[in-house]
Amino acid sequence: MRIKQYLAAILLIATTTAGCTHYPTEAASNRSSNEAIARKLYAPLEQYFADYKTYPEQLSSLVPKYITKLPTTADGNDFQYRATPVTRKQKTSFSIYWYQRNLRDNKIIACSVARTSYKSGETSETNDCWKPRKPDH
Questions:
Q1: Beta-strand relationship, 123-130 and 108-118
Q2: DSSP-assigned letter for residue 72
Q3: First CA to last CA across the chain, in angstroms?
Q4: How far is CA 93 from each of CA 104, 133, 135, rounded to the nearest angstrom?
Q5: Is 118 helix (H, G, I), strand (E, B) or coil?
Q6: How far apart are CA 48 and CA 131, in angstroms?
Q7: 80 closest CA partner among 64, 53, 100
Q8: How does pLDDT run along the chain (137 residues), one tens digit per residue?
Q9: Peptide bond into 64 cis (omega under 30)
């Protein structure tokens, strides 16, 4: 009997703390829209990479040759972008991220989509949302 109570307590703790540091309950429609918009930048980024053998330092480098103008988030904000340097295992990678409000507590969260291209020819994609760290002052 004690084992059942113990397991029930663990299950209760796990279900009530899920998402405390990882914010899955943000505005789903905005997140989906923003992910779709951000993924539309994949092709121009890959075209840029094919031409220059590196990703651009800024998204604005894609204009006007690869896209006519930079897209914005569903809330009208700019997307942020970061390309990571080449490592031994991966060819290169980039992340496109944005900030939006979490519906659960109305706090700002960060969300991103990212693509990594490996030297083997394989690619991987991720998407995630999290509570951003406070800036150091």
A1: antiparallel
A2: B
A3: 53
A4: 32, 22, 25
A5: strand
A6: 31
A7: 100
A8: 455 444 444 433 433 333 334 444 445 668 889 999 999 999 999 999 899 988 999 999 999 999 999 999 988 999 999 998 777 766 788 999 998 887 778 888 889 999 988 878 888 899 888 888 765 54
A9: yes
